[in-house]
Design goal:
Distance between the termini of chain B: 45 Å
Number of helices of chain A: 13
Largest interface: A-B, 44 and 47 residues
Radius of gyration of chain B: 20 Å
Oligomer: heterodimer
Number of domains of chain B: 2
Largest sheet of chain A: 4 strands, antiparallel
Order of helices and strands of chain B: HHHHHHHHHHHHHHHH
Shape of chain A: elongated
Number of domains of chain A: 3
Radius of gyration of chain A: 31 Å
Chain lengths: 387, 306
């Protein structure tokens, strides 16, 4: 049954579809930019764009849940229509990831990022960010208009299988990342923290931040590429790059900073961020490929072996003149559905044909209801009672 | 044209202009409209029997007025189409092979055209003309006979050895077309009303009587062609002598009775011809078809994705 959609609703649905496609590109670019070492200005723009998308999808979710509640179908929207995906792919991202990051950048620094104490929260935030991948499930809604338009069943099955597979994948990654944060599983962050402590200790033990030891400090720094700046009493004792390089290449998430008395040490977080981005891109590619395989391989297979034969048989049973047989592929002829189709071809259609021939009846292409101005200006179209 | 006829023509014109039937061959359009009038009679009658239309007439009278108007409109399309078909799609060069004498093709064509025009003015024959007309118009005969000769199997043997048609496949194609077009002449002596088809069991005496009538009207055509056309209406199960041309004409005519041009084939469905021939294979006894010939048509359709 086709649901009537107003032009405004259709336009909004199309807008959402465009946004889904754009957010996929944005998600990819945000991580790719880190990996490729794009300048901070560009990466900042991508972060703000991500914030904009999360805001958009949060508003979309709120509108959908509001109207679902208004129509007393909240449960149906949330579970059957997969509103939970809309929720997971919007509100948590805005609240825990893009929102705080954008606010921190706008506030001008690393209030939220960069300090050691916030590191575990960051891990959770990064994990939740992975939930953004759930947004990929919405691709199914885009493809719905292209394939299997007549088969709601095919759509539902493909969507269900894709949803389960991708959700399991995403939640496994999410769960593992969160567990790693809380149970101190050895990971990149802890290695980085340990490395940073070692470097700090070495600098302090050897008093490398003191005046006159610039050469030794430079030699030490050359063997520790993540060491960026060492300050003592506000005076810079060592810097790896010119200030212009820091301004153009480093954002608040790209360095960490510690203070030990008068000594301040800055470390580059870019390698660790790149590792995260590499992981994110891997998940992204896996999910995109999963969706693509479901849509390109599984969806046509489902149509070929389930929904198409059912569609043909349904038409054959519903329409007098529809006498096309079900095509039975050799490799699937033992499937239950094709054994049923063989019965339909060999028994039902010939019987129907004889019955039709005996009663000399044909399906009418002309329907009274479709007739416009049947009587011209001479009379009104009659209703079913002839009045 | 009086006022009633004008109203009927306008009403029928509106029905015919419906896009749902615009692609159909003319006689299928006619059949659709006849069915439409019958099915929707209870709804249409109050308005059509009002003073604005055909005031105070019975439904049967109204139906007859509309049927005549419909026939007139369809004839405007059908009769020129038949004439063009005879001129452009049929070559009578097969006749000398059967009669051993030369004939003027133009005269044969004129005679056949006149006969068919008379035939389609007779309602039962008109209704039966739909399948043969479509079979020739849409090239079914050409396509299938061509493939059957390429296969060099049962049907070809039946044409050339059993029916002893010592002629080329092109000439056999044209002969089958003429046989198909003359098939409805079996209804010539029936008096059914419009919309009802000849259904009685055909006796050989009846066919002899019809043959006597059409022989006079189609003096240029060999008797073998006329007999084949009439015999094609018999069941092959009880009449094994039926000519191969008649058997092929019968199968293709019935196939085309339900042919829908530009029919969309759903994904997962077999092609229309393949489906039809396969169903016909199951019902061959019911229709009185030659099952071996049907098998060949089926295989041809399957191989060519028709």
């Amino acid at each position: 049954m086709n649901e009537y959609r107003s032009p405004i609703k259709t336009a909004l649905e199309n807008l959402v579809i465009v946004a889904i496609i754009l957010v996929l590109i944005q998600t990819f670019l945000e991580d790719y930019a880190v990996l490729a070492g794009w300048e901070w200005d560009l990466r900042r723009t991508l972060i703000f764009t991500g914030f904009g998308f999360d805001l958009f999808f949060t508003i979309e979710f709120c509108i959908r849940i509001y109207y679902a509640a208004l129509n007393h179908r909240t449960k149906a929207y949330f579970f059957r229509e997969r509103g939970w995906i809309d929720l997971l792919a919007s509100v948590p991202l805005l609240m825990l990831n893009s929102g705080p990051t954008a606010l921190a950048i706008m506030a001008g620094g690393g209030a939220v990022v960069g300090t050691g104490g916030v590191m575990n929260i960051l891990k959770v935030v990064k994990a939740i960010r992975i939930a953004r991948i759930l947004r990929l499930l919405r691709i199914i809604k885009v493809f719905r208009q292209i394939k299997n338009a007549d088969s709601v069943m095919a759509q539902r099955h493909v969507a269900m299988v894709s949803t389960i597979s991708i959700s399991v994948l995403v939640f496994s990654i999410l769960g593992f990342t969160i567990a790693g944060s809380f149970f101190r599983i050895q990971g990149l962050e802890s290695s980085f923290t340990a490395y940073r402590s070692t470097v700090e200790e070495s600098i302090l033990e050897q008093n490398l931040a003191e005046p006159g030891k610039e050469r030794q400090l430079a030699a030490f720094a050359s063997s520790h590429p993540q060491l960026l700046i060492v300050k003592d009493g506000g005076a810079t004792r060592y810097t790896r790059y010119e200030n212009s390089v820091y301004r153009s290449r480093f954002g608040p998430r790209d360095y960490s900073h510690t203070e030990r008395g008068e000594v301040e040490i800055f470390f580059s977080s870019i390698p660790i961020n790149q590792q995260h981005s590499r992981d994110n891109l891997l998940f992204f590619v896996v999910v995109v490929l999963l969706v693509a395989v479901f849509l390109i391989k599984y969806s046509p297979h489902f149509a070929l072996t389930v929904s198409d034969p059912i569609h043909v048989m349904r038409r054959g049973m519903a329409e007098k003149d529809y006498n096309l047989e079900v095509r039975i592929p050799d490799e699937y002829q033992d499937d239950d559905i094709f054994r049923l189709a063989a019965q339909y071809n060999d028994k039902y259609l010939p019987l129907k044909d004889r019955n039709r021939e005996e009663h000399e009846s044909t399906e009418l292409d002309l329907k009274l209801d479709d007739m416009q101005d049947l009587f011209g200006s001479g009379g009104d179209k009659p209703d079913q009672n002839g009045t | 044209m009086n006022a009633e006829q004008q109203k009927a023509a306008a009403f029928v014109g509106r029905l015919l202009s419906n896009p749902a039937i615009s692609n159909l061959p003319p006689l299928q359009k006619e059949e659709q409209i006849i069915q439409f009038l019958k099915v929707n009679a209870p709804q249409l009658r109050p308005t059509l029997a009002s003073p604005q239309f055909f005031g105070n007439r019975s439904w049967q009278e109204i139906f007859n007025i509309l049927y005549r108007a419909l026939q007139a409109v369809i004839n405007q399309e059908l009769i020129p189409a038949v004439e063009r078909m005879i001129q452009n799609r049929i070559d009578f060069s097969f006749i000398p092979f059967l009669r051993q004498q030369q004939v003027d093709n133009r005269r044969v064509a004129e005679q056949l055209n006149q006969f068919l025009v008379d035939l389609i003015s007779h309602p039962p024959a008109r209704q039966a003309f739909s399948g043969p007309f479509t079979a020739v118009l849409y090239g079914f005969v050409d396509r299938y006979i061509e493939e059957i000769f390429n296969r060099r199997s049962y049907a070809q043997f039946e044409f050339t050895k059993v029916e002893r048609l010592k002629m080329s496949k092109e000439e056999i194609k044209h002969m089958v077309k003429v046989v198909a077009l003359l098939r409805p002449s079996v209804n010539l002596l029936t008096t059914s009303i419009a919309g009802e088809q000849f259904t009685g069991n055909i006796q050989s005496q009846y066919l002899d009587k019809v043959l006597g009538v059409i022989k006079d009207k189609l003096s240029y055509l060999p008797e073998q062609v006329l007999k084949s056309a009439l015999n094609s209406n018999l069941s092959f199960q009880s009449n094994r002598y039926i000519e191969a041309t008649g058997r092929a004409a019968a199968i293709l005519s019935l196939r085309c009775k339900s042919f829908r041009p530009n029919q969309k084939v759903d994904r997962g469905a077999d092609t229309p011809d393949k489906s039809w021939f396969n169903i016909a294979r199951r019902n061959y006894k019911y229709y009185g078809f030659d099952v071996k010939m049907l098998d060949e048509f089926y295989k041809t359709a399957a191989e060519n994705q028709w």
